[in-house]
Every structure is written in C-alpha cells, then in structure tokens.
Amino acid sequence: RSTLFPYTTLFRSRYQVSSPLRKEQIRWLINLPTGFPDYIASLRSKSRQIIRQSLRKFEVGEGCSFSVISEEYQIDEFLSIGEAISRNTYQWQVGQRLESDTATRNEYIRLARSGKLRCYILRIGGKPCAFARGSLVGGVYHYETPGFLTEYAKWSPGTVLLMLTIKDLIEVAKCQFFDFGTGGDDVGYKAKFGNISLPARTLLISRRVALRPTLIFLAQQALIGLKNIADRVLGKGQIRRRIRRASRG
After folding, report:
1. Which among 2, 62, 82, 178 could bridge 30 via Cys, Cβ 3.0 to 4.6 Å?
2. Which letter, b or e, does each residue of 136-168 get, where b requires 16 or more Cβ atoms within 10 Å of its Cβ?
3. At residue 58, does pLDDT exceed 70?
4. What's the CA dihedral at 231, 235, 239, 245 to 10 degrees?
5. Of the candidates 195, 163, 153, the residue with the CA atom closest to the CA atom of residue 52
C-alpha cells in the first residue's frame, strides 16, 4: 500500500479510485520463533496467564483433542464438521462461511496434493467445537476465518485452537510467518497475538465514464457516510459493544 497508493493520483483524471472500507486497515502477522515457549514468552503478562490457564484446562479435559488436517482423505470429514460449526456462527451471515461444496472440496484437494493444506479441528468432550483453516506456502501460513460454537465459550476454544495451531506450525511444519490476513485493527485478537503490523488498503479502480462502477462508487460513499455518523453517535462505549455482541448472536 505504501508504494502503490500515492501513484493512483497520476491517473485519477481518467479513473475513479475508491475504497469499500472507511478506515485504513492493519495486516497483522507473526514472525514465528523456533520454539513455542519463546512465542508465549513474547506476549504480554496477562495474555500469557490466560493462554496457560486455557491450555491447561484443555489438556486435562475429558475427550479434548486437537486434529491436524493436511491429507486428501481427511477433507470430506473436515468440511462436514466445519460447515456444521460455521452455520452456527455469525460469520455465516456475513459471507465468511466454510461450505462443504464442490468448489471448496476441489480447492482443498489441490492444496493437499501440493502439500499446502493445513486445517485444524478442536474437540471438547469428544465433540467438534471449533475449526481453523488455511494454507502453508513458502514458509508462510495464510490464516482464513475460523469458527467455534459459543456454547463452549468457557473453554476459550478460539484462543486454545489458535495457540495449538501456532504450536503445530512452529514445531511440526517449521513455519516462519503466520499471516492473519486482512481485516485487522489495533485492539482485536490479531493485535494481541501478532508482532508485525503493516498498513493495508483495498482499492477499487474503474473508468469514470462507466455507469455501473460510478453508481457503486456513489453507493459506497453514502454507506461510509452513514457509518461515520453512527460512529459519532455510538462512540466506542458500552452501547456499541452490546450491539456488536447482539449481531454476533
């Protein structure tokens, strides 16, 4: 973004440049050390305490297990379990779903055959409650939207699964970087567990004379304006947090 974005001003007389997002995002990564204990030690004291307690509880829990999915024969079961979980998460409603369809299956088969597939399932009491998915390419793990069942929240399945995923990537896969992908900010879990941050911006570039892109551009600007007004009204207080929790179910 830092090298490309300034140059968009050179052709704005012929093209309109916009972003579907109101704010500049942060892309978070983890520069993985050679040992998992070293990664845990790099985190803040409160985070270390929460992680150790959560992992300890998981390790002694009955029927608790962590599975790595990297082979072709594991794909059908993973997608079946993953979709069942994904359907019960708020992400399903906003387009970040995991579906057991032909397109996804074919893509996962391709990744497995090339040695790049790396997905995970967490079970508590013998029942699948969380999944993580991604691909390992050139020493970089590309992390996609995970999912977990909220009825297992007391087990901190999201944190446990993320930590066990990182542990596997360090100790087994010998991964160098963990890429959280787009959509980060400076307060969420990506900021808490990441140690490299890069500014990121999504740009939409279209000809000014084209009607459809122009209408999309105007609609985006109107939506952004409404969101900005909502931000000023709600602020960052308790009401905003309650609305977010309600929307996620």
Report:
1. 178
2. beeebbbbebbbbbeebeebbbbbbbbbbbbbb
3. yes
4. 60
5. 163
- Count of positions (residues) in the chain: 249
Can you tell me the distance from the alpha carbon of 170 to that of 39, in angstroms, rounded to the nearest whole number?
Answer: 9
Q: What is the pLDDT of residues 82-132, one digit of tens each?
A: 999 999 998 888 778 999 999 999 999 999 999 999 999 999 999 999 999
What are the pLDDT digits (tens) for 132-171? 999 999 999 999 999 999 999 999 999 999 999 999 999 9
Tokens of 155: 């087990």
Residue 24 to residue 201: CA distance in whole angstroms: 6
